[in-house]
Amino acid sequence: LLETRGVGSRLSAQAFRSVAGKDQAQFAVISGRTEFQIMRDNLALNDVDCGDHNVRAYAAALVEQYESHRHDLATVGRVLPGVQETLDAVSRLPWVLQSVLTGNLRRVAEVKLEIFGLASTFDLQLGSYGDDADERADLVQIARQRAEEATGARFPGARTVLIGDTENDVHAALAAGASVVGVATGSTSLEQLTSAGAHAVLDGLTPSSVTGVLTSIAGQADAVEGR
């Protein structure tokens, strides 16, 4: 949805320093992973105790960094092309509940979305975040459960749709029995997203492409259920 253009990395490094008491020399793999996984690896790779106490302190420090550097993020970061228009178009589909599934800590995700004016297009109470679970597949089930509890409706199988830009997003959706649309807006190519098993792939976010693929997935689910 957005790029921090280096601000996120800088804030993470400052949060690490506040907990570890030294600069970070080794860096965990980030793409498609949850924040707690990344934090534990960052601590362990740099010979710092990666127990729960330090991970929680690291998380709190990261939230504080984002809260206190909103201006930097707003000035340097950006919303990806087509995102606002696409979110607005999806929000107008009467049969869609739109939320977020992200490896970011919940408060960090909220700050990012607030800064760039995207928060109002989501029901953030129905989302799932990097401090809800370590495994991304578990986040899919958490979001599904929250949506069902809030609405009384059911979102089984293909009626839960994850749109993501990494192979881990695809794997998580498939593991949870959800539909998945791969979008090549990050470092993962269309070919990689297809090979990972995405049900549909897009080279970018546009209102027509995303609403079209969601309508197609819903139609296929209706056919399977005999509606």
From TrEMBL:
GO BP annotations of the record are: DNA repair
The identity of this protein, by name, is Haloacid dehalogenase
Species, as recorded: Actinokineospora bangkokensis
Question: SUPFAM superfamilies from the xrefs?
Answer: HAD-like
The source's domain of life comes to Bacteria
What InterPro entries would the database entry show? HAD-like_hydrolase_sf, HAD-like_sf, HAD_sf, PGP-like_dom2
Q: Report the GO molecular function annotations.
A: phosphoglycolate phosphatase activity
